[in-house]
Amino acid sequence: MVRPKKYLGQHFLTDPAIAGRIVGALDCSPGDTVIEVGPGTGILTAHLLERDIHLLPVEVDPEAAQHLKQKWPVLEEMLIEGDFLKLNIDAFIHGPFHVIGNLPYNISSQILFRVLEYRDRIPSVVCMVQKEVADRIASPPGSREYGILSVLLQAYFDVQNLFTVKPGSFFPPPKVTSGVLRLKRNKTLHLSCDEKLFIRVVKGTFNQRRKMIRNSLKAILPHLDIDDEILSKRPEQLDVSEFVKLTGYIESKMEESNLGKL
Question: What is the span of the domain harbouring residue 233?
Fold first, then answer.
């Protein structure tokens, strides 16, 4: 097995049955465009090449990219050598695209934030992440795991925590269990509030999650004199609709105060 030099600390999936389950969970139609993030040794790629799709693997490591093209010459014209986090997606894709990948643990959240940037063009995502991250993203309001990514992803996607993958399915085996998520774009085209402010409110409250919302939002609006029970709650108690409502409150107060939205 090739282990790319740049990612010697990464754990590579080796179980073809698990790879088949991951690819099988991707809800796409013939002819759809699919970005595979970080194909590495190509265990998902092998299954993806069997499907009637427009596959675009994105690999940042030159050694891995070379190995993939040698193993599957058809990838010579498909594979994009670059960093998904910095990739100019519009230069390669002009329409919708699905995303799949075994995401490196250390940048999985960054990759999912990038997915959020393109949410209106991504019908579905299937990805493997650390189980702790998968649980957090899929967790409901009121749970200890519920956080920033939970709210932001659940605002635009239906989230399913599909199954877990044990360390023995990787080389080298990690010290943690992994989880496979499926995100399917929901019917929310736009939130009924300023969406940039919504993201700022979610991040601002969870960055001080032990405080009541009234106190954690002082950095955004020092005098938040709204008489509403929502301000006495903590962020993990609010669902997406309540965060939308809260953002609307703040937006209206900012307009009244002529402070501007951002």
Answer: 195-257
